[in-house]
Design a protein that fits this description.
The chain has 258 residues and is mainly beta. It contains two helices and 16 strands. It has a single domain, classed as Thrombin, subunit H. Helix content is 3%, strand content 39%. The strands form three sheets. The chain has an eight-stranded mixed β-sheet with strand order 5-4-1-2-3-9-8-16. It has a six-stranded antiparallel beta barrel with strand order 10-11-12-15-14-13. A two-stranded antiparallel sheet has the order 6-7.
């Protein structure tokens, strides 16, 4: 049996709930920093004031047997403790950043099979990523996935804006890809160097971009998407910071990615 590609084990299906009532489905991925472990997703997955989306917990799916991927378990994560949100989010001079991280209890991860992105997977050199570069978006579009083996699917995408410039002053770049609801929080990756996980983590897929002036009958959707620069994770997982309240963590603005 062919060994599973580790990229597919970095990503998990995220389901949101209000008590026992299911709300939405999305995507998340795993990030390790030192001894600490985090789930990363879009901020609007855990809280979105504009749509009054306010789940009180999420569930993620985890593999329990590397030799038999049909075996999995669910992990329920409360989004509030003592009235305070458990996720970390950030903002910079361009406004709030649509990325959230939740620290995971390592004791709850015993016996599960995961692959983790780390700070070493973040893209350091802007010059190495050219406009038009081919990337992958790993996720669960409309919740679609390999339901037998509990694995995500990948979509091909291309970098659609200058990777070295914050698009319209915001902390994201654009991708050209066919995406759907449920992909929010997916990692956007570029093939990297050899190793156990040979991918560069470029961004966190957020949402499709559209124009208010588009004629819904005559004009097709742009097919463009926002992906927030992944190096915000260095700020949100900073070991010197305690658990973040709802108030966003301030991130430094650079000429390149946030």
């Amino acid at each position: 049996m062919r060994a599973i590609e580790p990229l597919l084990l970095t990503t998990t299906r995220v389901s949101t709930f209000d008590g026992q009532r299911p709300l939405t489905a999305a995507t998340g991925f795993f990030f390790a920093r030192g001894e600490r472990r985090f789930l990363v997703t879009s901020r609007h997955v855990v809280f979105d004031e504009a749509t009054k989306h306010a789940p009180d917990r999420i569930e993620i799916e985890l593999h329990t047997d590397a030799a038999n991927l049909t075996r999995s378990t669910g992990l329920s994560i409360l989004l509030y403790q003592e009235g305070r949100s458990v996720w970390r989010q950030g903002r910079d001079d361009g406004g709030e950043i649509d990325v959230a991280v939740i620290e995971l209890d390592r004791a709850a991860l015993g016996g599960v099979e995961l692959a983790w992105f780390t700070p070493d997977h973040l893209q350091r050199s802007l010059d190495e990523v050219e406009v038009g570069s081919s990337v992958l978006v790993v996720g669960f579009p409309l919740g679609f996935h390999d339901t037998l083996h509990h694995l995500p699917v990948v979509r091909h995408a291309a970098i659609a804006s200058s990777f070295g410039l914050r698009f319209q002053g915001q902390g994201y770049f654009l991708t050209d890809a066919r995406t759907h609801r449920g992909t929010s929080g997916a990692p956007v990756v570029l093939r990297g160097e050899s190793g156990a996980l040979p991918w560069k983590l470029l961004g966190v897929h957020s949402a499709r971009m559209d124009m208010d002036s588009r004629d819904q009958d005559l004009d097709e959707s742009l097919g463009l998407n926002c992906a927030w620069y992944a190096d915000i994770l260095l700020t949100l997982t900073d070991p010197d910071r305690g658990n973040a309240p709802r108030e966003p963590i301030r991130a430094q603005v650079r000429s390149g990615p946030t």
